[in-house]
């Protein structure tokens, strides 16, 4: 196709392109409107490609901009463009890959990838062969332009390139790329490695065939003069470590030596190389291969943790007081609400003892198997919009952390002398890196550090008032990593002085320090729990004062600290003097926030924890809070309906508002208990709940089921009339694909059955089979197993005749799941159900009786009548089998179990 522009049209477009480079917002908007208007004309895109590829009289930025506008048009309207125009653009782009200007070549490459992505590579069959042919061109610009385009295609379409749909082009491309590893141009060498690197992680077959040649060539380029080449070599080696360790093993010593040098480079290569230590730490051979190199590696990592001058400028490290400067909205990261999940607390003797709170719903991420969701501590460390990118400092600290976890206390002989030198250094930047290193090793080297902590913790507490804000903020972080030890010592020695200083830092004049102190204090709260009760007045004074002092960003972190405090001290917060301090500022914020303001999320989460902790103390505030939650749910459901019925006219709502409101209602139901009855009776909450339970979004269902369980406990009279509607929905959600949804549905079924008693009978055939399937699935996570076992036990309690015949199918897994949770009401009702079922079907338990013995022994202090039931079953079994068989049976028990049964049940 040949096409020529009209001179008027061309000059109009050139003027527009020039104007769009203006910094004036008004001009920008006018240009935007004009561009959208021009999109109505089919040949507008022809003009754009013409300016990019043919109009050499224009300056490069204007030509490139023309190409980028065309790229957006293709991305948005590509499917509506006439085939002839697309063909014209394709041929022009391929020609422009050889343009003398690197900027124009790169823009043409971006356009080519956009067309390939939009229309699919299979619809442009000649593209890859053409680009590969261009690599052989004697004209450097053509070769480099084609490689640039190929690199973008490999990045965007690695999977497609390895598919039979395209006839496996990689079989030709990879050997081709390998030929260019020794090209005279560093740019082309770098492109060749970058292209192949895209195929390492997926173990692409076409690359695996040539893996030895690839590795040999990488080694050849390891000492290349060019920075980009070295960076790509490091990146390739780090990925190979994960994928083809077998091939790297013979060269491991030289690779470690090489990475040691590269980690000290003064450019971005150092970050790529530093990733090597993080990846190596995950490999089983790490200890063996790295031990000889540790004395050289550790100092390199600690040096890498030092702020460089540019970091300090970006972090405004010389600005000590900035608390009066308002936050920029773009510096505030979006927050994600974590929906409620009902979990069990482990028993005191079980693997982990968790403290505080009753057995209400605790928060955990959707789909997370365990009760914790672990943030990367190094992502939060220097939390600044410009520096929150992964950098050498964070990578070095993370590497020190994982290696400390590999080497444990063997790490300390090398590290302690370095810490001594850095921690007490008069240069603040070095001292700061030492404090960071001390925090990084906390987890891995805790036992070896204990003898040094009586000296180090007081020193760190002094560093909390250092004159440099960046030293004060990192000290908060490091102290939080040792909070567990601090709490375990006599309070007067460490906890009190630490708390006093941390609370001062919460009111620091520097915003970064406020943020670090608030986060560290939340960690201390989680560790100390009710140990903080004697200091509550003092703590609340500070947190409430911070409300008046904080700018927007830190206010959101303050809500977390208050919510965590409520979770940690529970009902001890329910004192008139505490309530009168804490509630007015929270309610004032609550009243000032609009319904569509996302700051409601952290505030609602905080209020949910506070309502749960305050119990009846929250009553005076409950009505407006309850009404607003109902209104948020109603609004979201209405918006959802509108956007589904007329998609073009109404936007989809942000369902997080509804999820957070459901969770706060759960907190209210759990905290107020039967006092919530009057609020429930005067609202349409049951109708709203019925809709939310059927929402397409898993998190909405998850929170609905948590609320249903809590309302069942608090005011069943209002739930009862709707059971025939609710139970089938719960049964339908017993699908472990959505772990947290399934977990909360299971828990709610158990709560309902306890209230429904024998009226649960008609629903047993619907819910029991999926529950048995879940408890027998080897992939079911611990939390879901425990809740499933409790619910099966409860169903057996209310309908033993219906559930007992299936006993043999679940009794072993049931006993194994419930031996690890602490004594509580849920465990009690589940065990009563098990005793009832054994009475109905004693044969069902015989093959797995040893598991039942173990579960019975897991009780610390069962109620008298339950104790009697368990004892009766144990003695009954002994009588049934006779003394001799019983003795043989008991010989299989671990000694602890025999002792425990003898002490507890006299058997």
Automatic annotation (TrEMBL):
Residues 367-380 have a biased composition (Acidic residues). It holds the Pfam family TPR_IMB1. It comes from Anopheles dirus. It is found in: Cytoplasm; Nucleus. Residues 325-334 have a biased composition (Basic and acidic residues). Keywords: Cytoplasm, Nucleus, Protein transport, Repeat, Transport. GO terms for biological process: protein import into nucleus. GO terms for molecular function: small GTPase binding. This is Importin N-terminal domain-containing protein. GO terms for cellular component: cytoplasm. Residues 325-380 are annotated as: Disordered. InterPro entries: ARM-like (IPR011989), ARM-type_fold (IPR016024), IMB1_TNPO1-like_TPR (IPR058584), Importin-beta_N (IPR001494), Importin_beta (IPR040122), TPR_IPO4/5 (IPR057672). Residues 31-99 form the Importin N-terminal domain. The keyword Nucleus applies.
